[in-house]
Amino acid sequence: MGYQFIKGRCDSFTRSDGVTISLLPKPYCERCADPIRPSISTGLCYNCYNGNTQVDLANLSKVYAASVYVSHSIGHILSGEIKKCKHDLSYTGGLAEVLEHATTVMYPELNSYDALTFPPRGSKTEKENHLEGIVNNLSARIEIEVMDILSKLTDYSSQWKRSRENRIENVKDQIGCSEYVTDRRIIVVDDVFTTGATLLNSAKALRKMGAREVVGLVLGRAADTEHLLKYAEVIEKVED
Question: Which of 58, 85, 119, 184 is the most buried if burial means most Cβ atoms within 10 Å?
């Protein structure tokens, strides 16, 4: 038994390398991009509707996502590339092309923002910040400048494999901004949105230094198989 996305619930596009990428299923939460079932009339997922979200509006206005991220692959090519890119930077160009499609086709309003930035490197074992490579490549494609201005205030450990509560606590008020960004509208680019804790604390740091607005842009909105099957109703079981 396997799973596949229900036909008509998500668009796709083909990259210049010939790889077809499945995009974010529709509909999705208008604040955090979490896929939701078509019958939900509020436009919000359960967490955003009940205020249990890191997209607090005051600091982090909204999160845009190119697709979903599923740790147990459903034949989802992008999820595999996101995971591999942490240790193989040859994937940065292809992932940047996905974000280019997101900013130019899916969410063209992002082209009016002033700058791109990215969260600090998450783990000591990473020799390079893969996000820096992705964002620099994206910047060259969409002609929005990159500002490498976010850093850890303490050397907190990676968010990988932590619970929701631990993720939120791990990075709380632990990210700083090294430059004033007065009255600028900034996009924080990350690979995966799980709880949103890293994006929120990045946004807080930018807002403290004068940013007028901060939004998040991610390659994948994390969602497990059960959520996609029973809550969002965007995948279905198929025989192998």
Answer: 119
Residues 6+ apart with CB under 8 A from 140: none
Question: Residue 227 is encoded by which pair of tokens?
Answer: 């959520």
Whether 187 and 115 have beta carbons less than 8 Å apart is answered as yes
**Residues 191, 183: Cα–Cα separation, whole Å:** 26
What CA–CA distances, in Å, run from 179 to 149, 150, 197, 210? 6, 9, 21, 9
CATH 3.40.50 fits 2-238, yes or no: yes
Domain extent listing, the chain:
2-238
User: Quick check: 236 and 3 in contact, CB under 8 A?
Assistant: yes
Record the tokens describing residue 87, joined without a space: 């240790």
Cα atoms in the Cβ-side hemisphere of radius 13 Å centred on 81 = 22
DSSP 71-138: SS-SS-HHHHHHHHHTT-GGGHHHHHHHHHHIIIII-GGGGG-SEEE-PPP--TT-SS-HHHHHHHHH
Please choose, from the candidates 189, 154, 158, the residue with its C-alpha nearest in 3D space to the C-alpha of residue 175: 154
